[in-house]
Design a protein that fits this description.
By secondary structure, the chain is of the alpha+beta class. The protein has 35 helices and 45 strands. Strands 29, 30, 31, 34, 35, 36, 37, 38 and 39 form a nine-stranded mixed β-sheet that branches. Strands 2-1-27-28-10 form a five-stranded parallel β-sheet. Helix 28 crosses helix 29. The protein binds one RNA strand through helix 9, strand 16, strand 20, helix 19 and helix 29.
Length: 1165
RNA sequence: GCCCAGUUGGCGGAAUUGGUAGACGCGCUGGUCUCAAACACCAGUGAGAAAUCGUGCCGGUUCGACUCCGGCACUGGGUACCA
C-alpha cells in the first residue's frame, strides 16, 4: 500500500479540529511563544498564492516551538473591512457583509486543507461589531489624548485642560473657563491625537474616497490605478507625527529585516538642520500696498478685513521702549505702533486701563514692536505678550498660532484673551495675567515635531518689505553660496513679495502649478519651471541682495515651504539656476577634477572657501559653526524636520468601522445668530456604534459619504454622526492584542492576557506593508503603552518578510502569412515546409527553433520579424505545459474559437511537425509524438497571463504535506521567486521514500533492535542541521537535509525504531499529517504535536579521521585520509611522501605547507 | 536620482568563522522492467578533446576568495523634487 495522502490528511485534520489540539491557554507553566501571520484580506479570488508561503513557514516554526516545550499562540483571522467587497456591493447590490462571509468561508476551507495549526477559537474579524467596538474604543482614547512633549508621551486630555486652567501651559487666551465651548473644542482639536482638520488629501474621484500617502503610487491609486488629485478636505487624522522620533529610534531595538527598518527610516525621514531667516530687502521694486506690519491681534472681523483695519492710522501713546525688534526695521515698526495705538478696540482700552501704570506689579507696555510684529500688550521684564483677539476665525487660527510659535521661539510667552472675556470678565483676565507674570519663565520650545500646531509657510508679514522668509536647510555651511531663495507656489508670502510688474507672470505660474495634478508633477520631474517675483531678500551675513523665485520643486508641505538655493552644492538648485541663468557661487572646494558644467558638488565633504568665518573648515565642522552663529545672531534655530505626515483617518466609504463621533450643535450665539457645531465622541458605554444599513453603497446626491443615506443614523435622533468610516488599517493596527483575549466583552484585552503574551515573538508577512500597516501598528502600540494599557512598546520582536511570489508565464508566438522566401537563416528549410502552395496556416515554432533563428538573424544583422506578416504572442494556460513542454492537443482545444485547429506546430529540433492531430517527419511519414517547447517568462501572477497557481489544486494532486515541503524547498523564504511547480515530483518521491522506510510490503516494518553507529550518526547529523535551519529560518535547506537523511537511511536499510521515531518528530513541523500517521502506527495514542524534540548527541558525530583535500597553490588535486590525532607537523611530513604529491610537485621543492586541522592541506610551490 | 536586496550549471538553489564550488531536487542522457507507455529502479550530468577554465565584470588582499576590500554593470524591490 502506497502512502494515501488524501485519507491520512483528512483523518488528521479532523482529529486536530475535534481535539482542539492547537488551543493555546492564557495561563501555563510553559514559556510562551507568539507566532503571528499578517492578517489576510479575504478577497473573492480566494487565498492568494503568496499567502501559504509565509503561513507554512510560521506554521513550521509554531509546531517546532510546541515540540520544544513552548505554549504557542498561533492565531488567524481576517481583515474583513475593505474596498473590494464594497465595490462588489456597488455593482451587485449585495451587502458587503454577505460577500465577506462567503469569502471568509472559502479562505477557511483553503487554509484547513493545508493543515495549519491555528487556534481557531481565537479567530477575529475586523468587521464584526464585537471587534470593531474596540477599534472604536481605541479611537476614543486617541481623541481623548494629547501628546505631552515634556514627558514625551501621550496623556489624557484632562491633564492638558488642567494645565490650561492652572496656567502652567499657555493655550493662547487667558482663562480656560471663560472660553466658549466652541473655543475650547477648537483649541483641544489642535492637541488631540485624533483630530479634525482641513487637510490637503489625496482624493480619488473614481473610488470616491481619500487615500493615504502609501496608498498612492505614481500619482494613481494603488488599487485600481485611478488618478488621484490633491484636494482640501475636512478630515479626521491621527497625529502619528508626534511619535516620529520614537518610531525612528525604537527601530534599533527590534529584530526586523534591515530593509523594512530602512524603508521606515526613509518614510519617517528625519533631517537635522536649521531654520534661517532672510529679511526682505527694501527696494523700489516692492509692492507696497500695505505699508504697515500687522498687529498680532487684528480686532474683530475676518482675516482680510482685519488687515484692512490695521492700515488705518492709530493714536500715538506709550513710550519708545527697548529695541526688541530687528534693528533695521525698528524705526518702521515704531511708526506703525504709534499708528496702531490711535485705533484701539473697546476690549483693548478696557484692559489697558487695568494694566497700565504698574497696576499688576509689572511694567506693561502696549502696541509694542517685537521682532516683526506689534504686540498688543507686553511685559518686557517677564518676556510676556498679552494679546486680545476677536473671535477666532478658522483660517486665522493656524496663522496666529504660527506667530505664537515664532515669538515663543525667540523666548516670549504669549497669552491670549478673547474680546468677550475682556469685556465680560475682566477680573478673570487680570488674574490670568498676574498668574502668568508670576509664573517662572518656561523652557524654550524644543523640537518642532512635537508641537501640535500646523506650521507651514513660515515668514513674517512682508507687506512693507520689512518681513522675512524663513527657510529650512540641512546645509547651513553653504550659506555663503546662496544665490536665490525659492518659495513653493502655495507659500503664503508669494503674493506679498510679488512686485506689480511681475504680478501677472507669478499669478499665472501659481495657478498653473496648483492645477497640475500630482501625476503630471511626478511624470515630468525633470521639467524645470519657476518664475521670478521681482523682490529680493538680504543675505543675513553679507547683506547682499538675493532674488526671490517661485518654483514647484519646492514643496509647500515640507520644512517651511521655502529654500535657500545653493546651486553649486545642490542638484535641484543647480538645475533651476542653470535653467534660468542665475549666478552660482562655489563655497566648498571640490575634488580637482570635478566638472561643474554638468553637476553640482553635493558631497558633505571638503573645505569651505569664499565663506567668511567658515573658511577653511571641514563641512561637518562648518555646519556646527554655522548653526551656532545663526542661533547666536537670532537668525534661526537648529531644527529637526520629519517627512512623515499625520495619517488621514477618514474614508468616504461604507464598508468600514464607523468613526464614533457625532456633531453637537451648541445654542446660537449673539454674535453670529447661529449655533456652533463641535465634534464629540460617543460615550464608551454606547459602543459599538453599529454600521447602519443603507439603500445603496454610493455617495448621496450632495456628495456626502454613503453613511449619510441612513437617515436615522443620528445621535439621540438629532445630531449627525460622522459619515466617513475608518481606513483599512484601523482594525489591523491592534489585532495582535485581540488574539490574546479574543472574546473579552469588557476590555479590548485583559491585563492578565497581555501581561502573559506581551507581544509577538515572530511575525511573518509581506514587505509591501513596510510603511503602512507596520508603521501604524507600531504607533498604536506605543500609544496604548503610553496610556498604561499594555506593557510593550513594540508589537513584534522579530519580523521576517516572505518574498513576493511571481508567476511563470508560458508563452508562444503565432506566425501568420509569409512575406518573403526563406532566407539562409530562416527557421525552416523549404523541404521542411509542408504546406508550400497549400492554404496558409498559422505556424507555431518550438522555442529552441525560434531561439536559434533569432540568434542567426542577430549574427547576420537581419530582422527576425521580416519573414512573416503577423506575429502574435500568446500566454498559454500553465496547466497545458509541463516542464516547458506543451500538450498540443489540449492547447488547440483550450482556445474556444477554434482558431488554432489548422495550426502547424514545428516541434523541437525541426525534425517533426504536428498538424491535423498527427506528427509527421520531414518526408510526411506519420511518426511518434515529439516535444514542443514554450518560452518561460517571469511575470506578475495574474489571471490575465494564465499563470496562476492555485494552492487547492496542488493539495488535490500531491497532498498538503507535499505542498508544504515543496514551498519551503523552493528557496529562501525572504527571497522573491517565481512560483514554478516543475520540481514538485522530487518532493513527492521523497515523501514516498520516507514512508517506505517504515514499511515493507504494505505493512509497518519497524525493528526494536538497537541502531548501529552509522545510523545514529545520520540521525543526529540531521537533528543538528534541522535545529540550526529552523532557528535560522532556513527552511529550504532543512528539506534538503531530510532528503539526504532519508537517502542515507534507505542506503543503510535502516528500520530501527531508535532512529525512525525521532525522525518522525523532527519532520512533524514540515509534514504534520504524515508524521502523525507514522507516530500513531508506531504505537502512540496521542498526537505528535507535543512530543519532545530530540536532542542532538554530539558523541555520535565524532570522527576519528578526516579525508583531507590536498591542494597545490589552492587548487585541490587529490584526497588523503589522516587520523585526527595526527599533528600538523606529522601530516606535513607524511603528505610529502605521497606518490601523488611528488607527481604534482614536478620535482620542485614546496615553499610552504599549510595544514588546517580538519579542513585542508595546501602546498605552495 | 537616492536607499535596500540580489547576480553561482539547462532550471530552483547549497556551500559553517575565507579552506573540497555546484549539496538536495528538477530537467536531460543512457540502461533495467514493460508488447508499449507511464511509474519505479540503476548509472551519468558545470564547460572543454585535453591541458585547463569556471560563482555578473575589472582590480586588490591572502598559502587559499562565491565569501573580505575598491571600482563598475545588470536585475528586483522601496522611494520620488523632503532642502
Amino acid at each position: 500500500m502506497e502512502y494515501n495522502f488524501r485519507e491520512v490528511e483528512k483523518k488528521w485534520q479532523e482529529y486536530w479540529a475535534k481535539n482542539k489540539t492547537f488551543r493555546a491557554e492564557n495561563k501555563s507553566s510553559k514559556p510562551k511563544y507568539y507566532v503571528l501571520d499578517m492578517f489576510p484580506y479575504p478577497s473573492g479570488a480566494g487565498l492568494h498564492v503568496g499567502h501559504p508561503l509565509g503561513y507554512i513557514a510560521s506554521d513550521i516554526f509554531a509546531r517546532y516551538k510546541r515540540l520544544k516545550g513552548f505554549n504557542v499562540l498561533h492565531p488567524m483571522g481576517y481583515d474583513s473591512f475593505g474596498l473590494p467587497a464594497e465595490q462588489y456591493a456597488i455593482q451587485t447590490g449585495q451587502h458587503p457583509e454577505i460577500t465577506t462571509k462567503t469569502n471568509i468561508a472559502r479562505y477557511r476551507e483553503q487554509l484547513d486543507k493545508i493543515g495549519f495549526s491555528f487556534d481557531w477559537e481565537r479567530e477575529v474579524r475586523t468587521s464584526n461589531p464585537d471587534y470593531y467596538k474596540w477599534t472604536q474604543w481605541i479611537f476614543i482614547q486617541l481623541f481623548n489624548s494629547w501628546y505631552n512633549p515634556e514627558t514625551n508621551k501621550a496623556e489624557r486630555i484632562e491633564l492638558l485642560i488642567q494645565r490650561f486652567r492652572n496656567g502652567s501651559l499657555s493655550f493662547g487666551a487667558g482663562s480656560w473657563d471663560s472660553l466658549s465651548e466652541k473655543e475650547q473644542s477648537d483649541i483641544l482639536l489642535n492637541y488631540r491625537l485624533a483630530y479634525l482638520s482641513e487637510t490637503m488629501v489625496n482624493w480619488c474621484p473614481q473610488l470616491g474616497t481619500v487615500l493615504a500617502n502609501e496608498e498612492v503610487k505614481d500619482g494613481v491609486s494603488e488599487r485600481g490605478g485611478y488618478p488621484v488629485e490633491r484636494k482640501l478636505m475636512n478630515q479626521w487624522s491621527l497625529r502619528i507625527t508626534a511619535y516620529a522620533d520614537r518610531l525612528l529610534t525604537d527601530l534599533d531595538g527590534i529584530d526586523w529585516t534591515e530593509s523594512i527598518k530602512e524603508a521606515q527610516r526613509n518614510w519617517i525621514g528625519k533631517s537635522e538642520g536649521t531654520s534661517l531667516k532672510f529679511h526682505l530687502s527694501p527696494g523700489k521694486e516692492q509692492n507696497s500696498q500695505s505699508p504697515h506690519p500687522l498687529p498680532l491681534s487684528k480686532g474683530e472681523g475676518s482675516a482680510s478685513q482685519k488687515k484692512e483695519e490695521s492700515i488705518a492710522a492709530k493714536e500715538i501713546g506709550g513710550e519708545p521702549g527697548y529695541i526688541t525688534s530687528n534693528k533695521k526695521i525698528w524705526g518702521n515698526l515704531k511708526e506703525n505702533a504709534r499708528a496702531n495705538r490711535k485705533e484701539q478696540t473697546e476690549a483693548e482700552e478696557i484692559l489697558w486701563d487695568k494694566v497700565r501704570d504698574n497696576k499688576l506689579g509689572f511694567k506693561i507696555r502696549r502696541q509694542h514692536p517685537v521682532d516683526q510684529f506689534i504686540a498688543d500688550f507686553i511685559c518686557l521684564d517677564k518676556k510676556l505678550i498679552i494679546e486680545v483677539d476677536g473671535s477666532i476665525h478658522e483660517y486665522q487660527k493656524d496663522y496666529d498660532e504660527g506667530r505664537t510659535f515664532m515669538l515663543e521661539d525667540i523666548g516670549y510667552r504669549i497669552i491670549r484673551f478673547s474680546n468677550s472675556s475682556v469685556k465680560n470678565n475682566i477680573d478673570f483676565v487680570c488674574n490670568g495675567i498676574t498668574k502668568a507674570l508670576n509664573a517662572p519663565i518656561e523652557q524654550e520650545h524644543t523640537s518642532g515635531s512635537v508641537t501640535p500646531l500646523l506650521w507651514r509657510g513660515a515668514g513674517g508679514e512682508a507687506n512693507d518689505g520689512k518681513g522675512f522668509i524663513e527657510v529650512f536647510t540641512t546645509r547651513p555651511d553653504t550659506i555663503f553660496g546662496v544665490s536665490f531663495v525659492t518659495l513653493a507656489p502655495e507659500h503664503e508670502l508669494v503674493e506679498k513679495v510679488t512686485t506689480a510688474e511681475n504680478k501677472k507672470a507669478v499669478e499665472e505660474y501659481v495657478t498653473m502649478a496648483k492645477n497640475r495634478s500630482e501625476r503630471e508633477r511626478q511624470a515630468d520631474v525633470k521639467k524645470i519651471t519657476g518664475v521670478f517675483t521681482g523682490s529680493y531678500v538680504e543675505h543675513p551675513f553679507t547683506g547682499k541682495q538675493i532674488p526671490i523665485w517661485v518654483g514647484d520643486y519646492v514643496l509647500a508641505g515640507y520644512g517651511t515651504g521655502a529654500v535657500m538655493a545653493v546651486p553649486m552644492h545642490d542638484t535641484r538648485d543647480f538645475a533651476f539656476a542653470s535653467h534660468f541663468g542665475i549666478e552660482k557661487h562655489m563655497v566648498i572646494q571640490p575634488p580637482v577634477d570635478w566638472d561643474f558644467a554638468m553637476n553640482s558638488y553635493d558631497e558633505k565633504s571638503g573645505k569651505l572657501i569664499n565663506s567668511d568665518f567658515l573658511n577653511g573648515l571641514e563641512v561637518k565642522d562648518a555646519v556646527k559653526k554655522a548653526i551656532a552663529v545663526i542661533e547666536e545672531r537670532g537668525l534661526g534655530k537648529g531644527k529637526t524636520n520629519f517627512r512623515l505626515r499625520d495619517a488621514i483617518f477618514g474614508r468616504q466609504r461604507y464598508w468600514g468601522e464607523p468613526i464614533p463621533v457625532y456633531y453637537k450643535h451648541l445654542s446660537p450665539t449673539l454674535s453670529t445668530g447661529e449655533g456652533d457645531v463641535i465634534p464629540c465622541v460617543v460615550d464608551e458605554k454606547d459602543l459599538p456604534l453599529l454600521l447602519p444599513e443603507v439603500d445603496k453603497y454610493l455617495p448621496t446626491e450632495t456628495g456626502e459619504p454613503p453613511l449619510a443615506r441612513a437617515t436615522s443614523f443620528k445621535k439621540d435622533g438629532k445630531w449627525d454622526y460622522e459619515f466617513s468610516t475608518m481606513p483599512g488599517w484601523a482594525g489591523s493596527s491592534w489585532y495582535f492584542l485581540r488574539y490574546m483575549d479574543a472574546h473579552n466583552e469588557k476590555e479590548f484585552v485583559s491585563k492578565e492576557a497581555v501581561d502573559y503574551w506581551q507581544n509577538v515573538d515572530l511575525y511573518i508577512g509581506g514587505a509591501e506593508h513596510a510603511t503602512g500597516h507596520l508603521l501604524y501598528v507600531r504607533f498604536w502600540t506605543k500609544f496604548l503603552n503610553d496610556l498604561g494599557l499594555i506593557p510593550v512598546i513594540e508589537p513584534a520582536k522579530k519580523l521576517i518578510n516572505q518574498g513576493m511570489i511571481q508567476g511563470v508565464s508560458e508563452k508562444m508566438y503565432m506566425f501568420q502569412g509569409r512575406r518573403n522566401s526563406w532566407g539562409p537563416n530562416s527557421p525552416l528549410t523549404d523541404t521542411q515546409f509542408i504546406f508550400k502552395g497549400g492554404e496558409p496556416r498559422p505556424i507555431f515554432f518550438s522555442a529552441d527553433i525560434l531561439n536559434s533563428y533569432i540568434e542567426r538573424c542577430k549574427k547576420a544583422g537581419d530582422d527576425p520579424k521580416s519573414i512573416f506578416d503577423e506575429i502574435t504572442s500568446i500566454n498559454v494556460d500553465i496547466r497545458l505545459v509541463k516542464n516547458g513542454k506543451l500538450n498540443i492537443a489540449e492547447f488547440i482545444s483550450w482556445n474556444k474559437t477554434g482558431e488554432w485547429t489548422k495550426a502547424v506546430f514545428i516541434c523541437s529540433g525541426s525534425e517533426t511537425v504536428y498538424y491535423d492531430g498527427q506528427w509527421y517527419d520531414q518526408n510526411n511519414n506519420i511518426v511518434n509524438a515529439s516535444d514542443f517547447n514554450t518560452f518561460q517568462e517571469v511575470e506578475k501572477m495574474s489571471k490575465r497571463w494564465h499563470n496562476v497557481v492555485n494552492p487547492d489544486d496542488m493539495v488535490e494532486q500531491h497532498g498538503a504535506d507535499c505542498l508544504r515541503l515543496y514551498e519551503m524547498f523552493l528557496g529562501p523564504l525572504e527571497l522573491s521567486k517565481p512560483w514554478n511547480t516543475n520540481g514538485i515530483t522530487g518532493v513527492s518521491n521523497f515523501i514516498r521514500k520516507l514512508w517506505r522506510l517504515y514499511h515493507k510490503d504494505d505493512e509497518l516494518n519497524v525493528s526494536n533492535e538497537p541502531a548501529t553507529k552509522p545510523e545514529l550518526k545520520v540521525l543526529h547529523k540531521t537533528i543538528k542541521k534541522i535545529i540550526s535551519d529552523i532557528e535560522g529560518f532556513s527552511f529550504n535547506t532543512s528539506v534538503s537535509n531530510f532528503m539526504i537523511c532519508v537517502n542515507e537511511l534507505t542506503e543503510l536499510k535502516c528500520n530501527k525504531r531508535e532512529i525512525l521515531e525521532p525522525l518522525a518528530i523532527i519532520i512533524a513541523p514540515y509534514a504534520p499529517h504524515l508524521a502523525e500517521e507514522l507516530w500513531s502506527k508506531l504505537g502512540h495514542n496521542d498526537t505528535i504535536t507535543f512530543a519532545a524534540f530530540p536532542e542532538c548527541k554530539e558523541e555520535y558525530l565524532v570522527e576519528s579521521a578526516f579525508n583531507y583535500p590536498v591542494s597545490f597553490n589552492g587548487k585541490t588535486r587529490f584526497f588523503h585520509e589522516y587520523e585526527l590525532s595526527l599533528t600538523k607537523e606529522d601530516i606535513e611530513k607524511q603528505v610529502l611522501t605521497l606518490e601523488q604529491t611528488q607527481k604534482y610537485l614536478e620535482g620542485k621543492t614546496p615553499k610552504k605547507i599549510i595544514v588546517v586541522h580538519n579542513k585542508i592541506v595546501n602546498i605552495v610551490v
